[in-house]
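User: tokens in, sequence out, please.
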């Protein structure tokens, strides 16, 4: 029978005492996964296990929680916890393999469990680094023109491999002119500066702005000089 009451918040396995002072207080079946039950120890939810696992270890309400029981269930509990976290993360936003693994570990999931969960997500087709990279690059370019260096940096920060990054960036920038993109930013920026600012300060600010957007030094220099000439 499915558990009809609100489940308690989930806690990390490490927070449980393994000296026999805590007991299993609930083993409700999971509404969204009938093959599993939720393990609740001393009114603390610690994760899910298969019904077969429950039967194998003869788990019942009132049973003492011991270090032996923890070791026997540890791998399944931590893997399922990591998998559920991975599903929630990917539901909110796409991620690369490396970024998903980092995020799981950052949320205190054991590394082995995080790696296993990422592999499961990958096997189910829920992770596609190339599709993720293409989406990130597309959103960045829609927001504001950008050069290759900035796009490479953003993809690298998300754990996208260099070969995928280069392929995606080449495709995204293939028909774009970096000089024209830089000019769009420089022209808008120089107009917003007004006439009171000295030309040298305008030059420095425009140069820094375009450099931060990842344009090459030669493109930055030509775009800044052209924008300032138009302004003059």
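Assistant: Sequence out:
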């Amino acid at each position: 029978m499915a558990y009809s009451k609100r489940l308690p918040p989930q806690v990390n396995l490490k927070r449980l005492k393994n000296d026999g002072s805590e007991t299993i207080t609930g083993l409700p079946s999971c509404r969204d996964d009938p093959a599993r039950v939720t393990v609740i120890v001393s009114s603390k939810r610690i994760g899910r296990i298969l019904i077969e696992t429950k039967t194998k270890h003869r788990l019942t309400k009132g049973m003492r929680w011991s270090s032996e029981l923890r070791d026997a269930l540890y791998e399944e509990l931590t893997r399922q916890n990591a998998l559920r976290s991975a599903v929630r993360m990917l539901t909110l936003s796409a991620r690369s393999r490396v970024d998903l693994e980092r995020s799981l570990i950052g949320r205190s999931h054991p590394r082995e469990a995080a790696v296993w969960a990422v592999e499961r997500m990958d096997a189910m087709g829920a992770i596609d680094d190339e599709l993720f990279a293409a989406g990130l690059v597309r959103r960045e370019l829609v927001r504001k023109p950008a050069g290759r260096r900035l796009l490479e940096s953003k993809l690298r920060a998300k754990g996208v491999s260099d070969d995928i990054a280069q392929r995606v960036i080449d495709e995204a920038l293939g028909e774009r002119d970096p000089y024209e993109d830089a000019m769009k930013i420089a022209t808008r920026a120089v107009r917003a500066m007004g006439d009171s600012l000295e030309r040298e300060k305008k030059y420095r600010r425009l140069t820094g702005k375009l450099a931060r957007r990842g344009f090459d030094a030669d493109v930055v220099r030509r775009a800044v000089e052209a924008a300032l000439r138009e302004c003059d």
